[in-house]
Amino acid sequence: MSNLKFFSIAIFAYLIVPLTASGQSVTKLYNEGLTHFKAKNYDIANNKFEKALEKDEYFHEAYYYSGRCYFELGQADKAIEQFSKAIKNQEDFYPAWYYRGKVYFTQEKYDKALKNYNKALEHNPELAVAYLSRAKIYDLQNKRSKALENYNKNEELAGGNYNLYYNRAVLLKNMGKYQQALNDALKAIDKKPEASDPFILRSRIFRKERKFKKAEKELDNLLNVNPKSAKAYKERADLFLELGKHQKALADLETLTNKLGKRSSTLEYQKGICYAHTGNENRARRSFTKVISRNRDFADAYAQRAYVYIKMNKPSMAKQDLRKALRKDEKNPTAHYLLGKLQLQDYQYEKALENLNKALKEKHIGEAYALRAECRHKLGKHEKACEDVKLSIVFGYDKRKAQKDMREYCK
User: Fold this and answer.
1) pTM confidence score
2) How far is CA 359 from CA 186, 198, 321, 335, in A?
3) Do 341 and 310 touch, CB atoms closer than 8 A?
4) 191-208, pLDDT tens digit by residue?
């Protein structure tokens, strides 16, 4: 039997006949409370425990279960009060220390939670669940080595479960230990095949390693298990957008909005990007306008609508949106890059160069390097123009166009 299971069962078995009960009526009330607690009738259960405590104020097990009831009923402060009374009456009663720590954890009082978990382990060094809980705190505090040590101790004692494997996989990913993280995520899937998060975690690791086919395969596997997983469709749409596969991304986004009923400015914005890159400028413009109507401070939406206006040969409207984008976010790379593009078309080479420099300071954009190369060439800075056109290829600009420019700029 795992230590985690033993923890829950042992407490119930130990408490069925309380050692501190002051009479048969107290025992009866307490046992009735346990029955209702197991049935998740927390109000009724707590009433029984409170009545038992009226008859025996030193009954630490009843204080403990009363605290558990208050916790389940969302009354954290009352729960802490009852756990504290249990500890006062029986200092080595480790379940009360553990659960008081758990309440503090839900309140995001991590230092207090940690002290209580430490006390629980002081009184029961084999309490596997306390190591798991302590690991989560160390993880949140960015004490990754300590977190890993506690996850490993939990596995040693309890044999491993979904929460351990998934949380440790996230930690290992953050530590850059990708293969170990992939292995733990796979173990989490084995424990809970219907869970979305381990598949998504594996996909993100593969994306980080630029193994895009494997990243896509993980999401396909998740959709085979759960064809209605909104998380999977969103994650796969993000992947397709990163790869410039706008038609495929659009299909997943439309599944989210049209079939699964998901609505958000982010989804509408992403659909706008897909429409813009698949020749549907009017729908793209409508999508970005809808997003802007919901959030007037969304700088990227103005910048992307400007991109659509450029494609529709409406440069004056594009410039208006780019100025709005830069008022909302003065460092917006897309806005600077597109403004530079328009200024280059207007033969304003110095101004174009200034905006392209600002764009590339924030983000590597293949076409922005190509445009800056053209600016520098026009201004007689041929060596730098040659460097930029080479960089444009590195960051995804059309290779054939770049090679044509290289023949001109890199003489």
Assistant:
1) 0.82
2) 40, 36, 16, 8
3) yes
4) 999 999 999 999 999 999
